[in-house]
What we know:
273 residues; Rossmann fold; eight-stranded mixed beta sheet; 13 helices; binds adenosine-5'-diphosphate; binds magnesium ion
Amino acid sequence: MSDPTRPGQPHIVAIANQKGGVGKTTTAINLAAALVECGARVLVVDLDPQGNASTGLGLPPDARKKTSYDLLLEETPLEDVIQPTTFARLLLCPANADLSSADIELVANEKRSFLLHDALRQTAMDGFDLDVILIDCPPALSLLTINALVASQSVLVPLQSEFFALEGLSQLMLTIREVRQSANPALRIEGVLLTMYDGRNRLSQQVEADARATLGDVVFHTVIPRNVRLSEAPSFALPVTEYDSASKGSEAYRALAREFLARHPIRERMVQP
Ligand code: ADP
Ligand code: MG
């Protein structure tokens, strides 16, 4: 699935919300794995100093040779940073605590907002034959998140089905608008994804109703339920589809992958979901 406006290039998606604990990393890991099941070649870029996506995809801290810190601040080429995972067609640009100083170090850099964009340029990606790049953002509207938004074609916003969920969204939307005006006019909203949904809970239902009334079609049809398998899987360093293939969490992320693939043209070589 290449971007029709940029033939042969992968579709780059920032997974962003400045709130922590809303399901960004869970979505990065499990949407990636579900897309891979559909035949896509996917790169996850871990842009959070906590490195949870790296751990969740099976790369312990001591196995992270080069990281997204090196990619952004040491000009280490993409091919030296990308590592395979134990899953075919799923690649990782890992992160570790080195990245926690990046925001301060980036301030003085003239190209501070464009470093990830430049690192993911076409020539650097040649040879990886990627369909999708998912960028797992840190929980802040920091320069790291700005780098992700500048480098991406679209942004996927996980929204926890809790009270105050919609609060803070306007700040993210403002940041997206600023990025459009300054650096990336083509940046689209891929969708708002309701996460940790509990159908028996009236609050969850209310949050969904509010989100659909306020945001309309921007909200993904797929809703991710609260599912204990999703929270257990990272401690086994597995995506949920590998940890418990038949779980509600697996089904939900597979449905999200199908919804995502339906919106984007699919490459010939890809297996239909
Ligand atoms: P973020 O990256 O936005 O900080 P995470 O994806 O790390 O959020 O999720 C926060 C916590 O909630 C983690 O412990 C994760 O395992 C758990 N979690 C995320 N999504 C779900 C879900 N749908 N059901 C149950 N637990 C979830
Ligand atoms: Mg996270």
